[in-house]
Amino acid sequence: MLSKNQTKEIQFLHHKKYRDQQKKFIVEGIKLCREMMQTKSESIESLYCTEHFFTTNQTLISQTKIKYSIVEETGLKKISLLETPNEALIVAHYFDDSSKPLDFQNEFSLYLDDIRDPGNMGTILRLADWFGVHQIFASPNTCDCYNPKVVQSSMGAILRVNISYQTLPSILENQKIDHVYGALFNSPSLYTQKLSGGLIVIGNEANGISEQNIQLINKAITIPASPANGSESLNAAMATSIILSEFFRQLKA
Amino acid sequence: MLSKNQTKEIQFLHHKKYRDQQKKFIVEGIKLCREMMQTKSESIESLYCTEHFFTTNQTLISQTKIKYSIVEETGLKKISLLETPNEALIVAHYFDDSSKPLDFQNEFSLYLDDIRDPGNMGTILRLADWFGVHQIFASPNTCDCYNPKVVQSSMGAILRVNISYQTLPSILENQKIDHVYGALFNSPSLYTQKLSGGLIVIGNEANGISEQNIQLINKAITIPASPANGSESLNAAMATSIILSEFFRQLKA
To answer: Cβ contact (<8 Å) for B241 and A246?
Structure first.
């Protein structure tokens, strides 16, 4: 049973301002909560779950030694952000986001330049996970990775991909990065250019890559389109999937 | 000024049942309505627009000789499905969806096997357009391409990509298609297999490709993932973007 105060405390975490103050966020759903217990139990503050979830996951819950409360479905509904709350909700501490030096000679990573849509952000995390990119970077104005919609749409990738919010100049100052890639018009084709390790800048959904960051790109690439194409651009998540796929094909496959 | 009856008639088109009865649908927004007039004016039944849209597009409107009504913003709000109605709304007739025989020796196309999400459907149309696929196929249970969310999220690709709803066996009966591709687990890598023209089956968001259609695939492919990947799958639109990109790279770039 949840007290009024507990309910309120968790509801506050629906809002970024309070999440940032508390450095805590919400993880929901059977699959994601199980995965969180299996791989990031040290970050869990508390699990709120139904009787049914508790009985079917008792071993895992006792192994992880986390704090838990069994709640009624009505109580879960009050703290959940899902239309149909799903048996379990975890309040977790923000992950350690300090970026470790990456081997940018051989590895590629992403710099998200003001990606704003939580769905796109979640999709990009999932793509990064798929293609083995475990550390990505994002501009300070990029969508909050602890936004519940990002957490849900990342399908668990948020647990495996580390996101460090920094300006592009500060990353370039602190890491040895020879190649800064970005998709720009009238540039060499992504398919025919020999790709190498480096940082790939992904632009904002509406405005693309910012003027000051364009200056820092030294390897411009273009995603070729059919000459008959009538679309002006691909969306950020689609562009990311095509670019990451080609980097993976050339460097890792 | 819109009469009550006109308003109701258009509002009915928000629903698939009535769209299918009338074989009419709604196109909204300045850009899409302009494009519709430029490329598909023969399908337009009527344009409803603000005074401002009319004066700035007078030449185009008179060239296309379409029926139009100038409406107040409050009237537009009543017939629109957008949160912020955008100056113009067109009621259009369904496009001719009869599929022409494609040269499947050299061309590739998509078969959407029960894609249900309008956003995914719009994204896939946009990708098809980008990579020059102007005729695609979809199972009868795939999301309605005249769903307003599909029309909007396709960013105009709905005007350039023809969609024919048919079962996979009926397509294979009527067209000469040697290669039927589909992404399945434990299959040869998309990157190293020599791709050719053919039909690419894209599975449903939750259940993948249906059992009976799997039987019809004779070229199974896998999108390789990093060994460290923790995601079980990519979503349908991401998978489509990666697959189409690789077909385009090998066959057209």
So the answer is: no
DSSP A174-194: HS----EEEE-TT--BTTTS-
CATH 3.30.1330.30 corresponds to the domain B4-93: yes
Flag if B246 and A241 touch (Cβ within 8 Å): no
- Give the residues across from A69 on adjacent strands: A48
Q: Which CATH superfamily is domain B108-251 in?
A: SPOUT methyltransferase, trefoil knot domain (3.40.1280.10)
In terms of CA atoms, which chain B residue is nearest residue A224? B253
Q: What are phi and psi of A180, to 5 degrees?
A: -110, 110
The segment with the largest mean pLDDT, out of A161-175, B85-99, B218-232, is A161-175
Kindly identify which residue of chain A lies nearest to residue B160, measuring between CA atoms.
A230
Provide the H-helix boundaries in A43-167: 51-56, 58-64, 73-79, 118-130, 148-153
Which of B127, B189, B230 is opposite residue A238, by nearest beta carbon?
B127
Share of chain A above pLDDT 90, in %: 90
Residues of chain A in contact with residue B133, where contact means CB-CB under 8 angstroms, are: 226
Contacts B226 to A, Cβ<8 Å: 130-133, 248, 252
Reported ipTM exceeds the 0.90 cut: yes
Q: Which of A134, A242, A246 sits opposite B228 (nearest CB)?
A: A134
The rounded distance, in Å, linking the Cα atoms of B246 and B222 is 12
Measure the CA–CA gap between A165 and A149, rounded to whole angstroms: 18
| Tokens linked to B210 | 């249906």
Which of B229, B243, B247, B251 to substitute to test the interface with A, most A CBs within 10 Å? B229
Structural domain boundaries in chain B? 4-93, 108-251
State the average pLDDT for chain B.
Answer: 94
Query: What mean pLDDT do residues B137-145 have?
Result: 97
Q: Is the pLDDT at A85 greater than 90, yes or no?
A: no
The DSSP line for B80-140 is: --SSS--SEEEEEEPPP-PPPPP-TTT-EEEEESS---HHHHHHHHHHHHHTT--EEEE-T
**Nearest chain B alpha carbon to A222:** B253
**How close does chain B come to A132, measured CA to CA in Å?**
5
Stated pTM of the model: 0.94
The yes-or-no verdict on residue A251 having pLDDT over 80 is yes
Chain segment B3-54, per-residue pLDDT in tens:
999 999 999 999 999 999 999 999 999 999 999 999 999 999 999 999 999 9
Alpha-carbon distance B53 to nearest alpha carbon in chain A (angstroms): 22
The size of chain B, in residues, is: 253
